[in-house]
Amino acid sequence: MSVTTSPGDSGAPERPARTAAVIPAAGRGVRLGPGAPKALRPLNGMPMLVHAVRAMAGSRSVSLVVVVAPPDGADEVQRLLDAYPLTGRSADVVVVPGGETRQESVRLGLAVVPEDISTVLVHDAARPLVPVDTVDAVITAVRDGAPAVVPALPLADTVKQVEPRTGERAGEPEPVVGTPERARLRAVQTPQGFDRATLVEAHAKIALEGDGATDDAGMVERLGVEVVVVPGHEEAFKVTRPLDLVLAEAVLARRRANDGF
Ligand SMILES: Nc1ccn([C@@H]2O[C@H](COP(=O)(O)OP(=O)(O)OP(=O)(O)O)[C@@H](O)[C@H]2O)c(=O)n1
Ligand SMILES: C[C@](O)(CO)[C@H](O)COP(=O)(O)O
């Protein structure tokens, strides 16, 4: 494991080390198609992961960022982060090797978060453009007492539940078996924010049971602990398929035009 401390605001007062952000970045990006691991692909010339690290470090509350690299790629990721140091503020950035699944990668990242840090964010490297206001809204809700917080948006599409065909009928059109009430559904984003002890317990339980979940809040739900929602942001979308890269470049071009950076 290696540690990089970025150059920070000279003379800025020390903040207590209370919020850490774990960034799982160990995925291959199969749905994005052939090429480098997804987190290392460039957006406006800078790796997606660096955008995500800066998005987390952009919150004044975040004092530690744990990047979970591909299992055999921690050194490469460390070199890359060294090449793109944080600008404007300081946070410690730590790189650890990840695992075979997102869940395992988060658990490995969480393992190096010091116990004196009470609030932990988990943020996909694949959501590089989340605005800092969304990050801060999640942190505030946790600090105000919620053990688990997710940013989320209402759905634009109607959602159907289907019954996959199996056996001789595999491949035939799937039958619809339900239409959940759209007004009560939310599309969940990251960063998801947690009381550290709750998240550690949730990951330990799921690992012990050999079970899986597609997001961290889902694991906490299984403890019977309440998860609450704060407003997400359309720019916090996940880069999953090739068209998402086009959208991400367009968002960055709009930011450059608006902010002149
Ligand atoms: N073994 C894994 C798998 C995923 N992730 C991370 O979890 C986040 C969300 O996962 P996803 O978007 O599904 O990324 P990939 O697994 O890379 O995508 P795909 O399923 O298309 O391969 C990403 O930042 C990804 O790097 C991880 O850290 N470790
Ligand atoms: C955590 C997540 O981004 C919340 O929407 C999502 O569940 C990750 O799913 P993926 O299939 O690993 O991209």
Automatic annotation (TrEMBL):
Enzyme Commission code(s) on record: 2.7.7.60
InterPro entries in the cross-refs: IspD, IspD/TarI, IspD/TarI_cytidylyltransf_bact, ISPD_synthase_CS, Nucleotide-diphossugar_trans
Entries under CDD domains matching the protein: CDP-ME_synthetase (cd02516)
Gene3D superfamilies xref list: Spore Coat Polysaccharide Biosynthesis Protein SpsA, Chain A
Site feature (Positions MEP for the nucleophilic attack) residues: 182, 238
MF (Gene Ontology): 2-C-methyl-D-erythritol 4-phosphate cytidylyltransferase activity
Enzyme category, top tier: transferase
SUPFAM superfamilies, alphabetized: Nucleotide-diphospho-sugar transferases
Catalytic activity annotation: 2-C-methyl-D-erythritol 4-phosphate + CTP + H(+) = 4-CDP-2-C-methyl-D-erythritol + diphosphate
Site (Transition state stabilizer): 31, 38
Keywords carried by this UniProt record: Isoprene biosynthesis, Nucleotidyltransferase, Transferase
Biological pathway: Isoprenoid biosynthesis; isopentenyl diphosphate biosynthesis via DXP pathway; isopentenyl diphosphate from 1-deoxy-D-xylulose 5-phosphate: step 2/6
Family per record: Belongs to the IspD/TarI cytidylyltransferase family. IspD subfamily.
Function: Catalyzes the formation of 4-diphosphocytidyl-2-C-methyl-D-erythritol from CTP and 2-C-methyl-D-erythritol 4-phosphate (MEP).
Name the record gives this protein: 2-C-methyl-D-erythritol 4-phosphate cytidylyltransferase
Protein's organism: Streptomyces coffeae
Gene: ispD
